[in-house]
């Protein structure tokens, strides 16, 4: 029983660490945050994970022994390191919603004035920061995401721009508007980043989402060209 508990505990630990590293990579390397819903689901799973781990530890080792205490301490520290930023992020979202209820938030529209002024002055880094604030307040607004990507490209940060285009196309339900951003992302992957496989994936995703689009034939021809290179 003790061996089984240790194996199961280890098996559960891998997705705990893997998902945590992935979300941190998104947040700090690509500067993309999960949606509040996905953050809530993740933290709920985290609570369930801790409940399982505590049960398995109690079944496998003597409670309050040195191993038990150090195992709990390790789980706590790793949880704070991997998921602490997510807790803060979700808590801030809840606080904002309490101060400004959803009904009132919907009555407000994004104000791009400050960010646009920074863009005109050539302060692309400052503009990105301002647009990120808007993207956080209006997580389904593709305009802010596209402008973040555009300003990152102006700073020669194509690698950081790609995830923002990815987020934007997920929020664009119009085949025409979606295709415009999709084409930009395809060019970015294919020409600037040298990743034609990613460009192919983006086009295939577009066709799967909009199978009846009037542009399907031209997209298929483009896919053929990409797969031949």
Q: What's this entry about, in short?
A:
The chain has two domains: 2-105; 108-228, Tetratricopeptide repeat domain (Serine Threonine Protein Phosphatase 5, Tetratricopeptide repeat), CATH 1.25.40.10. The protein is 81% helix and 0% strand. The chain has eleven helices and no strands.
List the helices and strands and how they pair.
Layout: H1 2-28, H2 36-60, H3 66-99, H4 102-107, H5 113-120, H6 124-137, H7 142-154, H8 158-171, H9 175-192, H10 196-209, H11 216-228
Helix pairs in contact: 1-2, 1-3, 2-3, 5-6, 6-7, 7-8, 8-9, 9-10, 10-11
Task: Tell me about this structure.
By secondary structure, this protein is mostly helical. The protein folds into two domains: 2-105; 108-228, Tetratricopeptide repeat domain (Serine Threonine Protein Phosphatase 5, Tetratricopeptide repeat, Alpha Horseshoe). It contains eleven helices and no strands. Helix 6 packs antiparallel against helix 7 (142-154) and helix 9 packs antiparallel against helix 10 (196-209). The chain is globular and about 65 Å long.
């Amino acid at each position: 029983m003790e061996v089984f508990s240790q194996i199961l505990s280890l098996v559960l630990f891998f997705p705990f660490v893997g998902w945590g590293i992935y979300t941190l990579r998104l947040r700090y390397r690509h500067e993309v945050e999960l949606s509040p819903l996905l953050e809530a689901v993740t933290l709920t799973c985290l609570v369930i994970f801790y409940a399982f781990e505590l049960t398995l530890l109690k079944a496998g080792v003597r409670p309050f022994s040195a191993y038990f205490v150090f195992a709990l301490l390790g789980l706590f520290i790793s949880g704070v390191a991997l998921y602490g930023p997510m807790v803060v992020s979700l808590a801030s979202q809840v606080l904002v919603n309490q101060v400004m209820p959803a009904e009132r938030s919907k009555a407000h529209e994004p104000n791009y004035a400050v960010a646009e002024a920074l863009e005109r002055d050539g302060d692309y880094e400052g503009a990105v920061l301002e647009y990120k604030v808007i993207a956080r307040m209006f997580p389904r607004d593709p305009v802010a995401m596209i402008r973040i990507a555009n300003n990152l490209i102006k700073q020669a940060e194509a690698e950081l721009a790609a995830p923002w285009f990815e987020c934007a196309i997920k929020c664009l339900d119009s085949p025409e508007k979606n295709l415009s951003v999709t084409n930009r992302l395809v060019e970015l992957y294919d020409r600037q980043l040298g990743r034609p496989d990613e460009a192919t994936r983006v086009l295939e995703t577009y066709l799967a989402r909009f199978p009846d689009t009037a542009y399907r034939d031209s997209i298929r021809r483009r896919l053929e060209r990409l797969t031949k290179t």
